[in-house]
Amino acid sequence: MPPDLEFESVARSEGYRRIAGVDEAGRGPLAGPVVAAAVVLPDLAPALDLDDSKKLSARRREALYQALAETEGASWAIGIVAADEIDRMNILQATRRAMEIALSALHPPPDIALIDGLPFREFSFRHRAIVGGDARSLSIAAASIMAKVTRDRLMRRLHEDFPGYGFDRNKGYGTAEHLDALRRLGPCPAHRRSFAPVAQATLPGIG
To answer: Does residue 47 register a pLDDT over 70?
Structure first.
């Protein structure tokens, strides 16, 4: 079944009015930032035919990103934590930080956040965690699309700066092509040095 507004409706029945869906893109890659999006949808959101970004083609994600950006009554914001910050604080804390940045950029702020995944012990916003939320909540599905498209665009820009790794194709994930380039070239400044395949690279790097 496609995502719906059941979780948002429950939150509204509890007195929450401004409800943000939150999701991230880029927890697993070896390079590039982790990106989070926070999205508050208007009542007509079901007309957008949203779904979990992982189930959509790149072209469809781009089209829905544009549709969301132009939807009257919708508001959204992005949080980005770069590779060097991920190395400093670890990927879990970096993901939390990216989500907090995105939520902090929403104006007015949300009353509650619906977050894909497990709850955080410490978080700056009232939140409700939903495992598999990007396939269950329209707000989270919207956030997954905004985060994924934003991160893919950033990785294409990083490809222009560091063309040897195929970031425009692999988006920083550990594909065979990427791992081969890492062995040949060593890590670049966009790589997450704390991630094992990068830390184990034997060449000195180009940064």
So the answer is: no
